[in-house]
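Researcher: Final request for today, and then I'll write up notes for the group meeting. The sequence and the SMILES for fe (ii) ion follow.
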Amino acid sequence: MRKFFLALLFVVGSGLPAFAARAYTEPYLVSLTPSTEMNVCWLLAEAGEGAWVEFGETETLGRKAEARVYEVKGLRTSAKPDGYDPEPEKNPELKVFQRIATLKGLKPGTEYRYRTVVVEGGKTTEGPVYSFRTAPVAGGSPFRFILLSDLQQKKQILETVSMAGRQNADFILYAGDFQNTPWKAAEWFPVEGSFIAPEEKGREWFTAMQQTANGAKLLQYIPIFPCPGNHEADDQRIWTDKQLAQDSSKKTLSIYMQLFRPLYPDQEHGQGGTHWYSADYGDLHIVSLSLFRWHPWSGFEAPGWILFDDISPESPQVRWLEEDLKNKTSRFTWVVQHWHMLNRGAEVWVPMSRPVIYPVSPDVAMYPLGDHCWNVLRPLYEKYGVNAVNFGHSHVYERYLINGVNYIEAATIGNNYRGEDDPLHFSGNAPIVEQNQHRSVLVVSVTSEGMSAEAVRASEDGDGAVKVGEVFDSFVIAPLK
Ligand SMILES: [Fe+2]
Ligand SMILES: [Fe+2]
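Model: Predicted protein-fe (ii) ion complex:
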């Protein structure tokens, strides 16, 4: 496994490693228009005097895009070498600069090579040459993508993500929960002198997602389309601390939204902001929603569980979703949302809607509007022909098919939260396939024949009936109409 405490950069002309431009990450790719435009983003310890990306269709590159600079606010190191102060503000802020170059005017379905260049302290340093392929036009060449989510420094994520990176995929759909605590910089990338639990060292999110050993091609090579999960809330104490949970200023997604800035151009980090987007990739329309809640109280204890972003019928997110689905022109449609539409487990018995206090007993929260995931989102998915919805959060592998819509959680990436006796979803639907004995990766293919998926086993644990690398679940998501 490759580690990069400092990205290996070279001073032009000297051939020696340079530390003038300390990079926290390798470049990563995001785009809302991936057939013609790509954003190359990377994180540095210093802004430098200038930075750009050289790119082109051949080894000589030939084109150049200037990189804008942003300071990423809110990342912190540990107050002590052996741990964090529980109050985020009492841990020192880490200066992190984000460079973003937007490569424009690209040809669809075309491979481009690129490298980052940074000027700092009068020295010019070049990164390695990577490549990416732009999305095909609708009706164009076939493509593949992988589902990931919930890395959170869990055991075995390195092996699972490495296998995902060897599936020859064109992009990643990431269903939220990147790490455990977003303000801890050392959970995103290695930070010298900052605490990280020994068992989590080397499992930082970017370290896992930028592996290149054994031919893995991940964030440097293929764009990612993420959605936020509950672990993207900046201050994780809102999930357990009853007082802080009522402080609306604590309910922000600022670190996540800064890191994936080109997907959220308005950068509205707080509640009421826009935390969703859509993009077309060839024949596929991708919709990314913001769907999760917090739970310092038990579900039916006042004030109850409250959604971070509302999904009631007249909410901005649902109004946007319906407009988006109405106007899409792609052959296939996929929604990524962190919270499960369907799932076994006690959590699903607390409806996803605004709780009200039971008037006779002020300690009791009730949900008279029912589950908006089920009674608001699901009818929209069925009405507008959504082919699949995938989610994370429960760290399980299971899938359902209801009225033509596939509901998939392929999140057995590094651990598993499925209990033996977890109750079925309140609708009574049982998973068609459930496989939580081992880690896995789901690979989806879009071809002229339609859209189909294969789940690939990624770990040795479990019954051993299927070997690592073998397909244990294969299904058609949408045949060609
Ligand atoms: Fe998770
Ligand atoms: Fe989660």
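Model: Helices lie at 157-165, 185-188, 205-209, 254-259, 316-327, 372-383. The CA atoms of residues 45 and 411 lie 32 Å apart.
Researcher: Thanks, that's everything.
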